[in-house]
């Protein structure tokens, strides 16, 4: 899945501040950016699932939903996210096993 890694954005911003304040030189800045680009960060699965549930509740707030509606949308969001992840894994496995 694509997206922005806000931890990397924050790290790049800090590096650029350090560079403009001459705390690090260009070579250090360049190497730090290369190192940062090669690091892979992964949000824990449980946090992704929780986030999916919370995001699913947001549209219901517009319609002034009841607590029951909010809880249902939360669990539907959880299940949809888990199903989506499982489907992605299955499809990727099929593609590479052929």
From TrEMBL:
Keywords: Membrane, Transmembrane, Transmembrane helix. Signal peptide: none annotated. GO terms for molecular function: transmembrane transporter activity. Residues 3-96 form the Threonine/serine exporter-like N-terminal domain. InterPro entries: ThrE-like_N (IPR010619). Pfam families: ThrE. The chain crosses the membrane at residues 65-84. The keyword Transmembrane applies. Belongs to the ThrE exporter (TC 2.A.79) family. This is Protein of uncharacterized function (DUF1212). It comes from Weissella viridescens.
């Amino acid at each position: 899945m694509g997206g922005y890694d806000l931890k990397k954005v924050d790290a790049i911003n800090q590096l650029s501040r350090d560079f403009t304040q001459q705390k690090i030189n260009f070579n250090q800045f360049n190497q730090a950016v290369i190192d940062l680009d090669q690091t892979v960060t992964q949000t824990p699965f449980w946090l992704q699932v929780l986030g999916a549930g919370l995001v699913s509740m947001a549209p219901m707030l517009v319609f002034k939903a009841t607590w029951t509606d909010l809880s249902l949308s939360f669990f539907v969001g959880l299940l949809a996210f888990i199903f989506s992840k499982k489907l992605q894994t299955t499809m990727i496995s099929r593609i590479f096993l052929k």
